[in-house]
C-alpha cells in the first residue's frame, strides 16, 4: 500500500469516527448547512441569473429564453432544458470536454426538481401548438467545488428562474412576465458509517457510503428524490432525512427571499 492510500484510509477512519460521535470536521452540527450567500441577477447578458456560495462551493446559473419546436408528446408546452458544466478550473478531478456522468447526473437532479415541482408554467409558454414554443435554458456553471454541488446548483437555478425577465428582443413574447410560481428546495444528506449529515463538504463526500437528495415544496410535500452511491439507507435514515428536509428547506427558502 502506498503512502497516499495509507493517508486516505487514515483520513476516512478519522472522519467516520467523528461522524459516529456526531461530530464533523468543520465543527458543524449534523444537520447544519454551511454559510449561504445568494446574488440574483448577477449576469447582465441573461434573462435570469444567480450566483450562489455554499461554504466554499460556488455556482453561477444563467437562464436564456428562445423560441423553438416543442416536443412531439407535449405539443402545447414550452421546453425546459438544464445543463451543467464542470470545468478543471472548478476542481482538479473535472476534465475538459463533453459532459461526463457527474455533470449529467447533476443536471438531471436539478431539472427533475424544477420540472416536477411545476415551478415554471410550461403550458403558458406555447406560441403556436405543435409549431413553436418558448424554450427555457438553465445553464449551471460550477466555479468552485467543495462539496454538495446538487444543493448549490439547485438553489442557484431556482434563484435564477425567480429573477428571470421576459426576453427584450423577442417580438412574439406576449406574457406580462415570466411564469414562475413555486419555490422548490433541494436538500442533500450523506451517510457516513452509521451517521447521517446534511450538506456534506467535499471531504465528507469523498468518504460517504451513500447520498440522498429530496426536493420539497412550501407545503412540505416531496416532488423529487434521488439516491447516489451504492451504500444503503435505512428506514430510520429516511425518516431523519425527511424531518431535516422540512426544517432546512424552510431555512433555504428564506435565503431566496433576501435581496
TrEMBL record:
Tell me where the signal peptide lies: none
GO molecular function ontology, one term from the record: mRNA 3'-UTR AU-rich region binding
Keyword check for Cytoplasm? yes
Tell me a GO biological process for this protein: rRNA catabolic process
Q: List the Pfam families hit by this protein, alphabetically.
A: RNase_PH, RNase_PH_C
This protein's superkingdom?
Answer: Archaea
Report domain Exoribonuclease phosphorolytic positions.
Answer: 32-164, 184-246
Where is this protein found?
A: Cytoplasm
Q: Name one GO cellular component term.
A: cytoplasmic exosome (RNase complex)
Name the UniProt key words of this record, in alphabetical order.
Cytoplasm, Exosome
**Coiled-coil residues:** none
Q: Spell out the PANTHER family in the cross-references.
A: EXOSOME COMPLEX COMPONENT RRP42 (PTHR11097:SF8), EXOSOME COMPLEX EXONUCLEASE RIBOSOMAL RNA PROCESSING PROTEIN (PTHR11097)
Cited function: Non-catalytic component of the exosome, which is a complex involved in RNA degradation. Contributes to the structuring of the Rrp41 active site.
Subunit and interaction comment:
Component of the archaeal exosome complex. Forms a hexameric ring-like arrangement composed of 3 Rrp41-Rrp42 heterodimers. The hexameric ring associates with a trimer of Rrp4 and/or Csl4 subunits.
Q: Which family does it belong to?
A: Belongs to the RNase PH family. Rrp42 subfamily.
Protein's name in the database? Exosome complex component Rrp42
Organism classification, top ranks? Archaea, Methanobacteriati, Methanobacteriota, candidate division MSBL1
Which gene name belongs to this protein? rrp42
Amino acid at each position: 500500500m502506498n503512502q497516499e492510500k495509507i493517508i486516505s484510509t487514515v483520513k476516512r477512519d478519522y472522519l467516520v469516527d467523528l461522524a459516529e460521535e456526531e461530530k464533523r470536521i468543520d465543527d458543524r452540527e449534523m444537520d447544519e448547512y454551511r454559510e449561504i450567500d445568494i446574488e440574483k441577477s448577477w449576469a447582465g447578458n441573461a434573462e435570469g441569473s444567480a450566483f450562489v456560495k455554499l461554504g466554499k462551493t460556488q455556482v453561477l446559473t444563467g437562464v436564456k429564453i428562445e423560441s423553438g419546436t416543442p416536443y412531439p408528446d407535449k405539443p402545447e408546452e414550452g421546453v425546459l432544458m438544464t445543463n451543467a458544466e464542470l470545468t478543471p478550473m472548478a476542481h482538479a478531478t473535472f476534465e475538459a470536454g463533453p459532459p461526463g456522468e457527474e455533470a449529467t447526473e447533476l443536471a438531471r437532479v436539478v431539472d427533475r426538481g424544477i420540472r416536477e415541482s411545476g415551478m415554471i408554467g410550461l403550458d403558458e409558454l406555447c406560441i403556436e401548438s405543435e409549431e413553436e414554443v418558448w424554450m427555457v435554458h438553465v445553464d449551471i456553471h460550477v466555479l468552485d467545488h467543495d462539496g454538495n454541488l446538487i444543493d448549490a446548483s439547485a438553489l442557484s437555478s431556482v434563484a435564477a428562474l425567480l429573477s428571470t425577465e421576459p426576453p427584450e428582443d423577442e417580438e412574439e413574447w406576449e406574457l406580462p412576465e415570466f411564469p414562475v410560481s413555486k419555490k422548490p428546495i433541494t436538500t442533500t444528506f450523506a451517510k457516513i458509517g452509521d451517521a447521517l449529515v446534511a450538506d456534506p463538504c467535499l471531504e465528507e463526500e469523498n468518504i460517504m457510503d451513500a447520498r440522498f437528495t429530496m426536493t420539497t415544496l412550501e407545503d412540505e410535500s416531496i416532488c423529487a428524490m434521488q439516491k447516489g452511491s451504492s451504500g444503503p439507507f435505512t428506514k430510520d435514515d429516511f425518516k431523519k432525512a425527511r424531518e431535516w428536509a422540512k426544517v432546512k428547506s424552510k431555512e433555504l427558502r428564506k435565503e431566496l427571499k433576501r435581496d
